[in-house]
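Allow me, if you will, to draw on your knowledge of protein folds for a short while. The matter concerns a single protein, recorded as an amino acid sequence and a row of backbone structure tokens. Could you please explain, in whatever detail you think fit, how the structure tokens follow from the sequence? I remain grateful for any guidance, and I place the record below:

…
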Amino acid sequence: MPSATTVSADDIRDLAHQIRRDVVRSIACAGAGHPGGALGGAEIFAMLYSGVMNHDPGNPKNPQRDRFVLSNGHICAGFYAALARSGYFPPDELATLRKINGHLQGHPARAHMPDTVETSSGPLGQGLSVCNGLAFAARLDNSPARMYCFVGDGEMQEGQLWEALMTAGHHKLTNVTLFISYNALQIDGEVDKVKKVEPLADKLRAFHWNVVDVDGHDVDALLAAVDTAKQTTDRPTAIIARTVMGKGVPYMEDKAAWHGGKLSWDQANEALEALGPARNYTDFAIEGGTK
């Protein structure tokens, strides 16, 4: 795939827009899911899979590939859309999200997707530990592969995550980049009211991490943050990406109720109208007609 320096920021924005449309439509097909965080992470998914990561859907097991671990696996609708739009499987399969015997499970399952999912995920707080293991292996192999991990801000309340942060910082795993989607909300409401994680940047720096704080919907800022991570040679990098839960859908934005839940076709059509029509992509087919 092209590098971050050759991919147009506008192309990434277009892909993020399509990922949002795919998230809404696939969750409506499923009848339920987790739209809030998936919509909020669209620019990060789009940036990683359209330009930043070294990966190839034609050779998914290349040992030199970069790895991506979605630690908060419940927002996988956005991850699956990025995979489909990158060529790992036909976009029409997005209509099978959460279906029995389908490979697009409600959380990424390696048993169902061995060529596209580096590790099964769902139990929060575990993804960075996996990334650390992959980073150690790459170091032993003198591999240029980089590891990218995506977590939510509510997930920062998990103890294992802080052990992993300490490990990566202590061992100077410079090939690890952590994205923290910081929308200030989790399933039970406001993060600060459930269990405070602030001052987050100061804590990360105390654990020997380089920290970049950006608008998680600003593609140019995200690309610059990733370049900073690649240029940092003495510690891993955490990118605190300030995102909006339900981004692009007015009735979902900044509402913890849309962490997860049912999404009817009436609600989906309202969301799709707010997002605007597909551009440079074709919406995936849905049995019984298009919506």
Summary: The first helix runs from residue 9 to 30.
